[in-house]
Design goal:
With 285 residues, this protein is mostly helical. It has a domain of 103 residues: Up-down Bundle (Receptor-associated Protein), CATH 1.20.81. It has 10 helices and no strands. The longest helix is centred in the C-terminal third of the chain and has 50 residues.
Amino acid sequence: MIAVILFLIFGCVAILVYALAPILTQRAIAMNQQQAQQNLSRADLYLQDKESQNAYRFTIIAPVAFAVIGYFFTPDPLKLGGIFIGILLGVVIPRMYVSNLISARKSKFNEQLVNAIMIMSSSFRGGLSLIQAIEAVVDEMPDPIKKEFGIVLGENKMGVALDEGLNRLYKRMPSIALQQMITAILLARETGGNLPQIFSRIVGTMRERRKIEQNLKTLTIQGKIQAAVMTLLPIFFVIGVSASNPKYFDVMFKVPMGRQMLLTALILWIVGAFFIWKIGRLKDF
C-alpha cells in the first residue's frame, strides 16, 4: 500500500513537471533576461571594466551552458526538468558571482578606508583643503578607493556639490566608518571643528571594530565548516558507494520512480545548501 501511494505521489509530480516545464522554461528565460540586465547594471556601477566584462560574459553564457548540461546529464524522461533546472541555476549562479565580486570590492574599500582617513587627517594638519586632501588620497591609494574618491573629484569638477558627491559615494560603498567620515566633514564645513582629531577617533573606532569582526569570524568558522561538510556529504557518499559497488544506484536511473526521487533529492539538496550557507554568513553589524 505504501509503495502504491508513493508511486501515485511521484506520478503526480512527474505529470506536473511535464505540464509546467514549457511554461516555467519560458518564464525562466524572461527572468534570465531581466536578471542579466540587473546584474550588468550592478557590475557597471561597482566593478572595474575587466571585472564587469567577465561578469557580462558569465551572465550571458551561464544559462545556456547549464541548460545544455542539464539536458545531457538528465535521463530521457526528465529532459525538460533538467533544462529548467539548468536555466534556473544559470540565473542564480551569475547573480551570486556578481554579488561576491561586489562584496569583495566593498570589503577591500573598507580595509583601505583607515589609511585614507589618516592621509586626509595628515593633509588637514598640513593646511590643505578638503578637495586637496581627497586628491592626496587618489594619488597615494590603490583601487578601489582610488577610483571611488576619483569619481567624487570628477563629479565635483563637473559641477556636482561635494556634499552630494560624498553622499553618492556612501550609496555605492555603504559602511558605518564612511558614514562617520562624511558626517564629520559635513558638520565641520557648516559649524567648524577639529577634523584631524575627529578623524583620529574614527580611525580608533574602526580598528576596534575590525578586531571584533575578526573575533566573530573566528567564532563562526565552525559553523562554516559544518555547512561545507553537510553540503558535500551527499556527493562524497554517492562517489564512495559508486566506487565500491558501481551498480548500486542502477535502480535509481533505470526505474521511473528512482529518477523522480533523484530529481527531488537534487532540488532539496540545492535548497538545503542555500539555507545552510545563508544562515552561516556573517552580516554587517
